[in-house]
Every structure is written in C-alpha cells, then in structure tokens.
Specification:
Beta-lactamase; 2 domains; 387 residues; 13% strand
C-alpha cells in the first residue's frame, strides 16, 4: 500500500514538474548532469568561421606525449595509473589540455563523445561575470559601483538597505543577502535551482547583514545580475551571450541556456549554460588572452584583470573575485578558474599559457584536482624548457 502511494506521489510530481518547485524536487531529487534535458531552454546560436585549436606539430607531440602516459602521482594516489583509466575512475566525461593554443590532450568517456552536450552548473557564473563586463563596455551598465536598485528599484519597497548593495557586491558574493545552502525541497539552494519563476524568487530575497563584510556563496547573486542584464540590455540574457561570446568565439556548435519554465522564460543564471566541452575551452581562451580574440579586443583587458586578480582590497575573500575562483597568494602558481558542481572545471594558468577543461558526472577526486592541474602544468612548462 505504501509503495503504491509513493508511486502515485512520484507520478503526480512528474506531471507537475513544469509548474512546481516541490514537484521537481520530488521527481528529480538532486541536480544531475542530465538536467539540461529536463528544463526548457533557449538556443544560443554559433556562427562561422569556427575556431579550432591547433594540432601540435610532430616536435611538440614528441615533447609532451610522455606526460600523458601516466597521471602525476598526488600524495599516495595515481601511482602508475594511465590517464584513460584515471579519467574513467573519476567519472570524468571530458578532459582537455591546451597549451599555447595547441590541443595537447583530448579525452572523452563514460558515455560521452566530442559532440556531446555538457552542462555547466556553476561555471555559468563566470560567463555571467563576463556579460556584466561586456554590458559596462557597451554602456548598458554604468559601473560595478552602481547600486543594484538603479536597475531593480522595486527592492527599495522591501528594504531601503538594498540601496547599499552594489553590482560589485553581487560579483564578489558579499552582498549580505540571506541564503540557506543545504536541504531539499525548500532551501535557497533548491529554490534557486528548481523554482519555475526565478524572477519572483530573486526579488523576494532578504538582507541578513550589511554588504561588503562576509563572503557567502549565494545563488541569488547571479540571478540578480541576470535581472540587471535583462533590463539593462533589453533582451534575454541568452541573446546577449550569443551576441558577445558564442558567435564571436567561433563555437563549433550551438549552445543553450536552461530556463526556469516556459511560462517565465528566465535563464537559470546560476547554472544553466550547455554546450560542448571544446567550446567551453574557447571561453577560457578569451580570458587567457585578457579579452583579446585573434587580434580583436572583445572584452576590455582591464575587466579580465579586475575579475581574476588576487586582491582583497574590495572584497572579503582571498580566493574569489568576480564570479571566478582565484588561486590565493598562498598558492605559488597563479591560476583562476570557473567551477561547477560534479567537478565541471575551466582552469587557466596565464603565465604558462595552459587551459585545462574537465567535465564529469560526479566528482570523486575532489579536492585534489587543483594540485593535479598545477603539477601537470609545471610538467608542461618543464617539457617546453627542454626543447
């Protein structure tokens, strides 16, 4: 009897997923890399010419190939383990290593291929940051010091303290807005992921403390930035992504941005960009070259520097800037990265001209990825010095 009742509840929840946060939490449970198939989406078109990373010449293959025979040992792990075996075991679906624009290593597995769609989860946040930079450069937004109430004046009717929150506070996750991360089905984490009307949810947020004091990873921040972008540019955020990033960077396939619902049609700003792993690498390349794309300055270099620098003078976190994770000063090798749930990674090592892209179904290797990427990057640098 109980089994039959639970089955009925699940069936009803499945039927109601287009309309109900609770139904989505019951039917879909925790977020999954296949969620891009569940949510409605808005297509983000690509354009010719397609950009291709270089194939390494024979000399480079000879120089770097030995590094991809076995995985660098990290502590007591990985000893003598071949890269494909390691990537299979760590539930990885896509793994790319790029240096000096050469695609040195490209691997797909666990049911994925080169043309498979991967979903970004929180790596999308770094795209949102870039779009804010584009909107400032285009004159749609004044600066990061603008109060968010310049664009969302209705927040003043709730609480006058919203006027003290700036765009910079949203970008640095230091707004003071209340956020409860854990728990289904009613935590803020679940609400900002599953609610079918994210605009209403976002505008219902509350203030817990003064802005600029505390770093708190909070999905209301990219959602608020999405509302600001939507109003400032006068178009869906996915259309602005297409115009400023997807078409100019020569993505090899159309992408998409998952929406909260058909009725609302608002992009899932915190997580919902979908595309091919190789195309995500092109976004990383834009930031590796300080916003310059093949001689054209698409995004101001000053924005890239400001977004990814090691700096605590304008925010309380030493490892986070404008929706990018930044290697703190305690880590000798400077890097910055876009990171998402289940180990979706875009890592950039600027001094070594290295990009590492990893997407996966889960993340059993956490938290050792940073050490592995850094070790591999040093090996690549050493191999280059031997030429």
């Amino acid at each position: 009897m109980i089994i039959a009742f639970l089955a009925l509840v699940y069936l009803v929840a499945t039927l109601l997923t287009p309309y109900s946060q609770l139904a989505r939490a019951i039917a879909w449970m925790d977020s999954d890399v296949g969620d891009y198939r569940r949510f409605p989406l808005r297509v983000v078109n690509n354009a010719l010419p397609v950009f291709h990373f270089q194939k390494p010449p024979a000399a480079a293959v000879e120089r770097y190939a030995p590094l991809f025979a076995t995985v660098p040992p990290i502590g007591d792990a990985n000893e003598g383990l071949a890269w494909p075996d390691f990537l299979e075991r760590t539930d990885t679906t896509s793994f790319l290593v790029i240096k000096d624009d050469m695609l040195l290593y490209e691997w797909y597995g666990n049911g994925y291929e080169r043309n498979s769609t991967v979903t970004s989860f929180s790596t999308a946040k770094s795209f949102v940051s870039a779009l804010i930079g584009f909107a400032i450069a285009d004159g749609f937004i004044g600066s990061v010091e603008d109060p968010i109430t310049d664009y969302l004046p209705e927040l003043l009717d709730k609480d006058s303290r919203f006027a003290q929150i700036t765009i910079r506070h949203l970008l640095t996750m230091s707004s003071g807005i209340q956020y409860e991360e854990h728990g289904l089905p009613w935590s803020d984490d679940a609400t900002t992921y599953y609610a079918p009307d994210l605009r209403a949810v976002t505008l219902s947020c509350e203030i817990a403390e003064p802005s600029g004091q505390t770093f708190l990873y909070n999905n209301f921040h990219p959602l608020l930035l999405g509302l600001i972008l939507e109003r400032a540019t006068g178009q869906p955020v996915s259309a602005y992504l297409e115009e400023k990033i997807w078409r100019p960077l020569g993505m090899e396939a159309a992408g998409s941005w998952s929406l909260d619902s058909v009725a609302s049609g608002f992009e899932k700003m915190e997580s919902g960009i979908n595309g091919r792993a190789i195309d995500f690498a092109k976004f990383a390349r834009l930031f590796l070259y300080q916003g310059n794309w093949n001689g054209h300055q698409l995004l101001p270099a000053s924005w890239v520097e400001e977004s990814t620098r090691r700096d605590m003078t304008t925010d309380p976190a030493d490892d986070y800037q404008y929706l990018w994770w930044v290697g703190p000063a305690s880590e000798e090798t400077y890097h910055f990265s876009a990171r998402g749930k289940h180990g979706q990674h875009l890592f950039i090592f600027p001094e070594q001209q290295v990009i590492i892209v990893r997407f996966g179904k889960s993340d059993p290797y956490y938290p050792r990825w940073v050490e592995l990427y850094t070790t591999l990057t040093h090996q690549l640098e050493a191999a280059e010095g031997d030429k």
